[in-house]
Design brief:
The complex is a heterodimer of chains A (about 110) and B (about 200).
Chain A lengths: L11 H10 L1 E6 L2 E7 L6 E7 L21 E7 L19 E9 L2
Antiparallel strand pairs in A: 1-2, 2-3, 4-5
Chain B lengths: L1 E6 L5 H15 L1 H26 L15 H28 L13 H39 L7 E6 L2 E11 L2 E6 L2 E6 L5 E5 L4
Antiparallel strand pairs in B: 2-3, 2-6, 3-4, 4-5
Classes of the chains: A mainly beta (about 110), B alpha+beta (about 200).
């Protein structure tokens, strides 16, 4: 079976399909886990969405004092599948599909 | 809590680059935190070693020479320094190498997210470890300073018994067979030739 080649592409339908099929979970404060099929390659993927990440040795972000994440955010997402897609550059993940998802978190 | 998902506006190529960069940062986060914790652990160990070297410049070394209650104060400071140092070392080691325990499997959590949560725990340990180690250093300095500069014990007193009276006080001086004592009632001169007994005592009754 031919593998879908890696290509950084987007279509309006990607975001619509992801919004309709992805499930969201909140495993920890400041952390969302979106699970669903990639709108391009179809592999079921898990996409983490986090409020902050420790980047350098000079900054303590996680758990430190910071602005709370807004309840609504526009999040750029990519396919994070680990399937083999020919032509995928080193350091890249997924099949190359990307889209924008509007995520709204309602407090209980 | 509920999460609603809706399609966003059309994405641009830079969105792909941004999302890829974020995913890469997330994937390497735990390694960066562990490396930072290892560097902090080494730095804090160096700081404490430097403090030990600083202690080689000697002042008073025996807290038994301090006037009450300073020996107790020094002891409390040293105890607090040992507790802070021990806790700081444990936190820094845990931040650098993780907890020596089996973690429960979370099959629904991808590895990159589990690593992100572990990185958050390690960062908290790192901050606590740095704060505790600095507190240990400060307490050690305070203990050494108290030992060096705290008020010393008063010198020994003399208890002189002579016919009809007993005197006790610190020695002011001796001159031509006369001993001058500083007593609670003021300075008193005693003819040593008339003294029945002369005893050194820790304190006067």
């Amino acid at each position: 079976m031919d593998r879908l080649p890696y290509a950084e592409v987007t279509e309006p339908g990607y975001a619509e399909r992801a919004a309709a099929t992805f499930q969201a979970a909140r495993p920890a404060p400041g952390t969302l886990l979106l699970t669903g099929p990639c709108p391009r390659c179809g592999t079921v993927i898990q996409v983490p969405v986090v409020d902050g990440v420790y980047k350098t040795t000079g900054r303590f972000r996680v758990g430190g004092r910071r602005e709370p994440a807004p309840s609504e955010r526009l999040e750029p997402l990519i396919c994070t599948c680990e399937e083999e897609h020919p032509g995928r550059p080193a350091g890249r993940a997924g099949c190359g599909a990307y889209w924008l998802l509007r995520i709204t978190v309602d407090a209980p | 809590m509920s999460v609603n998902l809706a399609a966003g506006p059309p994405a641009e190529p830079w969105h792909a680059a941004l999302a890829q960069e974020r995913y890469g940062l997330l994937a390497g986060e735990l390694d960066r935190v562990r490396a930072a914790a290892t560097a902090w652990r080494t730095g804090m160990a160096g700081l404490l070693a430097a403090l030990v070297g600083f202690g080689l410049v000697k002042g008073r070394t025996d807290i038994g020479q301090l006037a009450p209650p300073w020996p107790v104060v020094t002891g409390v400071l040293l105890l607090a320094a040992a507790v802070a140092g021990g806790a700081g070392a444990l936190w820094l080691l845990r931040a650098a190498h993780g907890r020596p325990a089996v973690s429960p499997l979370a099959p629904s959590l991808p590895g990159v997210l589990a690593d992100h949560l572990a990185a958050g725990t390690a960062l908290r340990d790192l901050r606590r470890g740095v704060a505790a180690t600095l507190a240990c250093a400060a307490l050690l300095v305070a203990a050494v300073a108290t030992t060096w500069y705290g008020p010393g014990k008063d010198g020994p007193r003399l208890r002189v018994q002579q016919p009809g009276s007993v005197l006790c006080g610190s020695v002011v001086g001796v001159d031509r067979g006369r001993l001058t004592l500083r007593t609670e009632a003021g300075q008193v001169t005693v003819e040593l030739g008339q003294a029945l007994t002369v005893q050194p005592v820790e304190r006067c009754p």
